[in-house]
Amino acid sequence: MRKGAISRDGVLKAIAEYDELGRDRFLSKYGYKPATGYLLLHEDRTYDSKAIAGVAHKFDQARVLRPDELIGGRSHAARWLAQLGFVIRSSRSPDWTRDEIILACDLAMANGWKRLEFDDPRVIQLSALLQTMPIHPEELRNELFRNPNGVARKTVDITSRHPDYRGKPTNGNALDVEVMNDFLARPAEMAEVAQRIRHGLTTGEFQDLPPEAEEEDDYSAPEGRLLIRRHKSRERDKGLRKRKIDAVLRQGRQLACEACGFDFEQVYGDRGSGYIECHHVVPLHEAGEGRTKLGDLALICANCHRMIHRRAPWPAPKELRSLVQSRQNARARIPSQHNAETDEAAAAPIAREGAGNHSRETGAAKRNDP
């Protein structure tokens, strides 16, 4: 059977029937199970999004959709409802990100790598801070999102993976262990990273950053996504970039990549004149909220810029330059070796022919020898 569109009025009628029957009777009447993915939030009450969408279809298209006709995730039922202006919330809390685990690890380290309880004031404070973190969209946050119980549980997951822990570890994830190992290897540096993240959240600085772009998936850093986002925001500051370029030109220097030497004007002519990207060279855990100085920026081409950010630890432009030069030197040696091998191969037949002539001459000499 064909599925048709549903309307806001149809959804409101389904909600009214849900309220009248109650959740259990409503779901049982139409053969739906409790939502496991997304909930509809309306007037401070939550509803099973898939069931509501299926029953709303009755009021608009004269038949209720069966559960197997709807996919309950964002791809179908929840998307229908969101397009009609309804608020959708996840019924599960989203996975913890590196930024969140960094703050939880910092708290666990401050507590001697021992678990913390849900009523610990430090856990309650961290719970409130995590709820201000601009990483997870509103529709993925439910009423239990990063509550004190969840934060306390995360400290258990982390501390039970510590090398000195003698009990059975909990079912945490690989990222918990990865971040914890960063703290064990570089405690002072990672504590500074946590401090930078806390400061950005407390002051609201991260709230004003541009939204996350898809290309950030190609950026890797142990300091987390928020500090990367702030780093990129500074690099893309057009006014700051212009001042850096103007300063370089006043010094009579060339606008060339400090890693590979690429000059946009030389390659593209007028179209490339005055163009180059800037890279913020101060490490993320050291870059605070102060003003960015021109000396903190390096001129870099787009390719080298992407290669710097691709994998942690990020190399300095001079380190990338050494890598580029070593690769260029290696390629320069390959043709010489190839030419030598070609010359050697070409000389081989001559040598064999010479040896054959020498052999024939020797044989003739022996036959003619009295």
Question: Which key features would you list for this structure?
Answer:
370 residues, 14 helices, 53% helix, two-stranded antiparallel sheet
Shape annotation: extended
Number of helices in the DSSP assignment:
14
The whole-angstrom Rg is 33 Å
Strand line-up in the sheet with most strands: 2-1-3
Strand pairing plus helix content: what structural class?
mainly alpha
Compute the average pLDDT: 83
Q: Please give the alpha-carbon distance between the first and last residues.
A: 111 Å
Largest sheet, strands/sense/barrel: 3 strands, antiparallel
Helix content percent band: 40-55%
Uncertain residue segments? 214-218, 347-370
Question: β content, as a range?
Answer: 5-15%
Order of helices and strands: HHEEHHEHHHHHHHHEEHH
Report the strand count.
5
How does this structure look, described?
- With 370 residues, the protein is mainly alpha-helical.
- The chain has helices spanning 8-21, 23-30, 49-61, 77-83, 98-110, 121-130, 148-159, 174-185, 187-203, 225-235, 238-250, 264-268, 302-310, 317-367; strands at 38-42, 45-48, 87-90, 277-280, 297-300.
- The strands form 2 sheets. A 3-stranded antiparallel sheet has the order 2-1-3. It has a two-stranded antiparallel sheet with strand order 4-5.
- The N and C termini lie far apart (111 Å).
Concise description?
The chain has 370 residues and is mainly alpha-helical.
How are the secondary structure elements laid out?
Elements: H1 8-21, H2 23-30, E1 38-42, E2 45-48, H3 49-61, H4 77-83, E3 87-90, H5 98-110, H6 121-130, H7 148-159, H8 174-185, H9 187-203, H10 225-235, H11 238-250, H12 264-268, E4 277-280, E5 297-300, H13 302-310, H14 317-367
Helix pairs in contact: 1-2, 1-3, 3-4, 5-6, 5-7, 5-8, 5-9, 6-7, 8-9
